[in-house]
Design brief:
globular, alpha/beta, four-stranded mixed sheet, 7 helices
Length: 190
């Protein structure tokens, strides 16, 4: 099977990475397919199993860990596991496409370490922690406690930004989307 490229977009929750990834997926010339992560949490809002995530039980997730089915995984919060199944990347490569990830910071860095030549790792940086909190509250999908947990985690995640290949500062979403498009297009030329 011919390997494609891996495009990792990571950021603290609320930074705009999902919006940027959706924009890139809409650009047919990039030949991208979204890597659907496995998650043990319940769906939020309008999320659909098999489209947004593969929602699986903690027990099944742990079985996949034991059989080394993940290229990366993490317990992001207590009993909240996320991971990328090897079969998902292979499925996309079999289609002749490049894989794009909307993934947490630790998972993104693990993919970069595992596939250094094939991966472009991009960190999407929010304007500020205060702006992050505003964005998370506007979502209206999580409790105040969950939002505070995400904000506390964001400070740690922001410190990892220099470990990524590129940093996009999302002060203006249209500019950030264009910058991401140009970065990806350039990386795929190689």
């Amino acid at each position: 099977m011919k390997k494609g490229k891996l495009l990792v977009f990571s950021a603290p929750s609320g930074s705009g990475k999902t919006t940027i990834v959706r924009h890139l997926l809409a650009q047919a010339d990039l030949n991208l397919e979204f890597s659907i992560s496995a998650a043990t949490r319940a769906p939020r809002g309008q999320e659909i199993d098999g489209k947004d995530y593969y929602f699986i039980s903690i027990e099944d997730f742990k079985k996949h860990i034991k059989t080394e089915d993940f290229i990366e995984w993490e317990e992001v919060y207590r009993d909240n596991f996320y991971g990328t199944l090897r079969s998902e990347v292979e499925r996309i490569w079999a289609l002749g496409k490049n894989v794009i990830f909307d993934i947490d910071v630790a998972g993104g860095l693990r993919i970069k370490r595992k596939f250094p030549e094939e991966t472009l790792a991009v960190f999407v940086k929010p304007p500020s922690i205060d702006e992050l909190k505003i964005r998370l509250k506007k979502r209206s999908t999580e409790s105040e406690d969950k939002i505070n947990m995400r904000i506390a985690k964001a400070s740690v995640e922001l410190a990892t930004a220099p470990q990524f290949d590129k940093i996009i500062k999302n002060y203006d979403l249209d500019i950030a989307k264009e910058e991401a498009y140009l970065l990806v297009k350039d990386f795929l030329k190689d």
